Amino acid sequence: MDRIDKKIKEIAKKIVDSEVKRKKIAYFLREIGDKMGIFNEVEKIAIKNLKVVGVDGGIAKKSLHGFDFIVTRAVATYFRYSKGRLTSVNYFPSKSPIPAIKILEALSDLDWSYSISISRQMAEISVAIAAVKKFKPDLLLLDGSVVPHYTDRPSRSSAIYEAYVELINLYKELFDTTTAYGIIIAGVIEDSRGNRFGEIIEEKVLSEIKNPLVNEVKKMIYKTRDTNLLFWALKKGERSLVFDYAREPESHPILREFPEYMKRIKSFYLKTSRFDRPIRVDFIGEDFIADRLSSIIFSLSCYHDGYGLPSVLIEADNAAKLKEDDAELIYNAILSETGMLPSVLRMRRENRPF
Q: Distance between CA atoms of 114 and 148, rounded to whole angstroms?
């Protein structure tokens, strides 16, 4: 036990030391940021007249001996503001829709992992398309990015590649629909693991500065996520500069799927709460949209010093979320109909007698 305690103390000290360095670097960036437009103050506004839709999805899943199944549910919440007040709230398809169940057989572990993510996104984007057509909002907010993550792309030989192609086509339909209606579309990533902002700082800022701290900043940026650095660098009610989603969109495994839009997909970070991490916002459009978009998102975010997400997305999450217990209930219902067949046996790791 003494060895474990010693190791824990070593790990804790390393974390604290790294955080002290990040804080020091963040303050260095603050000093140069005001001169170079790295950080921008966001205007908090009274939402006088606005129609906004937020979309989120929930998922539960279970692997069995002979097959797997995924349970999904997606909900769009529609907030309408008039004269500075929230005047109406609606849901699509309803406040508590019946979840969809998808049965999958003989998938590899890798394809099963892809299926979980693709199924959730298909549910969300399908609902987003329908909600946009129904409510015609000024702003559509997705939970997560406006494009799939590059790790969600299976190989062409995968058993679920066709499902991925269908997902990409749904995204294209969503982009075309929001463009046709003149709707701003953005995705809010609450726990971003990216380091794109750090890349931008190194490429466009540090290369222009002569300061003994520059080399130290570069070394720390290599091993720091954007949100970890920006927690210290951004103040509440500030956003970062706008940057391209990817350095080379044409070769990006996901962006190249959207040739008409790939160069218009942008990002910025926004700090909505004093003690919470910044959120990342991905959007489609020109850089100047970030001013209005960040003001709206900041003004819609809940008033809590330790948690800052737009209320329309919080409500969508509450309506859509599923628990693993939901998958267990469905499994028991299937079992009652089939009896104890080999295909419905639990995985051994869930059924050990000791």
A: 11
Helix (H) or strand (E) holding 316: helix 311-320
315 confidence band (pLDDT: 50, 70, 90) = very high
Torsion sign across C-alpha atoms 33, 37, 43, 48: negative
In whole angstroms, give the CA distance from residue 212 to residue 201: 16
Cβ atoms 228, 22 nearer than 8 A: yes
Cα(333)–Cα(351) distance, integer angstroms: 18
Q: How confident is the model at residue 228 (pLDDT cuts 50, 70, 90)?
A: confident
What H or E segment, with its residue span, contains residue 8? helix 2-36
Mean pLDDT of 10-14: 88
Beta strands in the chain (DSSP E): 39-41, 49-63, 67-82, 85-92, 100-105, 139-143, 184-189, 238-240, 243-244, 265-271, 279-284
For the entire predicted model, the pTM comes to 0.89
Q: List, in sequence order, every residue forming a beta bridge with 281; answer none if it has no partner.
A: 188, 268
For the domain made up of 42-59+75-95+116-194+222-321, the CATH class stated in words is alpha beta
As a whole number, the mean pLDDT across the chain is 86
Instruction: Compute how many other C-beta atoms are within 10 angstroms of the C-beta atom of residue 123.
Output: 25
